[in-house]
Amino acid sequence: MKIAITDANIFIDLIYVELLDALFAIEVEIHTTINVVDELNESQQKAIFKAVKKNRLTIHTQEEFNVPDDIKKSKKLSDSDKSVFSLAFELDAFILSGDGVIRKISGFQRIEVHGILWLFDKFLESKLITGKKASQKLRDLGSYNKRLPTIECEKRFVEWERLK
């Protein structure tokens, strides 16, 4: 099974639209770092720790991975971002993030990266949500997260609303 290292913005978005459980239902082993968890507010952390208790999420401490020198030196990345990259290298995993800097550096580092729209597509493929529900949840998320790619969202609304 493939391993994904999840960034804070993915957790925040999924919790907001009440789809966090769907993340743990797709065919991917989900991991994150304590640095990412520290970026979440108390209620978000509670939701995350429920997944840990159910063995659906693994949280790694800084002692469990090494930060590569080129990542360590980056001034564009937060400590949390650096931990995500480091763990992705350590576990030969891909990254789940909507952060533009992470996505850009992932390309340079040749690390696979996917965002929230990819997750919605996976939720649909896995029949965890309907097209109608996906459209509604993405619209809800768009009112909260103004950084979503508008054109890609619009394409999905058209596609998903055609689904039964």
Task: Give a nutshell description of this structure.
This protein has helices spanning 8-16, 20-23, 34-38, 42-53, 69-72, 79-91, 100-109, 116-125, 131-144, 150-162; strands at residues 3-6, 29-33, 57-60, 94-96, 113-114. With 164 residues, the chain is an alpha/beta fold. The longest helix is centred in the C-terminal third of the chain and has 14 residues, at 131-144.
* Mean of residue pLDDT values: 93
Radius of gyration, taken over Cα atoms and rounded to an integer in Å: 16 Å
Largest sheet: 5 strands, parallel
> How much of the polypeptide forms β-strand, as a percent range?
5-15%
Structurally, the number of domains stands at: 2
Helix content: 55-70%
State the end-to-end CA separation.
29 Å
Q: Kindly provide the name of the CATH class of the largest domain.
A: Alpha Beta
Core attributes:
single chain; alpha/beta; Rossmann fold; 2 domains
Your description of this structure?
With 164 residues, the protein is of the alpha/beta class. The protein has two domains: 3-116, 5'-nuclease (Rossmann fold); 127-162, no CATH class. The chain contains ten helices and five strands, in the order βααβααβααβαβααα. It has helices spanning 8-16, 20-23, 34-38, 42-53, 69-72, 79-91, 100-109, 116-125, 131-144, 150-162, and strands at residues 3-6, 29-33, 57-60, 94-96, 113-114. The chain has a five-stranded parallel β-sheet with strand order 3-2-1-4-5. Strand 4 (94-96), helix 7 (100-109) and strand 5 form a beta-alpha-beta unit. Helix 9 runs antiparallel to helix 10 (150-162). It is globular, with a radius of gyration of 16 Å. The two termini are 29 Å apart.
